């Protein structure tokens, strides 16, 4: 069961917004999710992310998509993940 951290589209036509979720890699974009990490509003450039839970899922092996990786990086989650990974070795 390969897990991905990716975006799930919500919102109306021409007004996109997304949920940042953990989902099985083989599932379609809008199917059932494993965990909900936050939201991202494209039009206003705002987003909210549960950093502790995102870090937990990264440690469990979830791989972020390119856009999710960018959002995680802006919040500092990836830097914290790499620090904890280096500290363990």
SSE order and pairing:
Layout: E1 3-12, E2 15-24, E3 35-41, E4 46-49, H1 51-59, E5 63-64, H2 66-75, H3 77-88
Parallel strand pairs: 1-5
Antiparallel strand pairs: 1-2, 2-3, 3-4
Describe this structure in words.
With 89 residues, this protein is α+β, with helices and mostly antiparallel strands. It has a single domain, classed as S16 Ribosomal Protein, Chain: A, CATH 3.30.1320.10. It is built from three helices and five strands. It has a five-stranded mixed β-sheet with strand order 4-3-2-1-5. β1 and β2 form a beta hairpin. α1 crosses α3. The protein is globular and about 45 Å long. The model has no long low-confidence stretch (mean pLDDT 90).
C-alpha end-to-end distance? 25 Å
- What fraction strand? 35-45%
> CATH superfamily name?
Ribosomal protein S16
Total number of distinct structural domains: 1
Named CATH topology? S16 Ribosomal Protein, Chain: A
Features:
89 residues, S16 Ribosomal Protein, Chain: A, five-stranded mixed sheet, 3 helices, 37% strand, globular
Short description:
This protein has a single domain (3-88), classed as S16 Ribosomal Protein, Chain: A (2-Layer Sandwich). 35% of the residues lie in helices and 37% in strands. The protein is built from three helices and five strands.
């Amino acid at each position: 069961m390969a897990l991905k951290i990716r975006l799930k589209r919500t919102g109306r036509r021409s007004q996109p917004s997304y949920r940042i979720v953990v989902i099985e890699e083989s599932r379609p974009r809008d199917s059932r999710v494993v965990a909900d990490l936050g939201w991202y509003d494209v039009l206003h450039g705002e987003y909210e992310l549960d950093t502790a839970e995102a870090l937990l899922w990264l440690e469990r092996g979830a791989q972020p998509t390119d856009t999710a990786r960018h959002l995680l990086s802006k919040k500092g989650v990836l830097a914290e993940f790499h620090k904890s990974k280096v500290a363990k070795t």
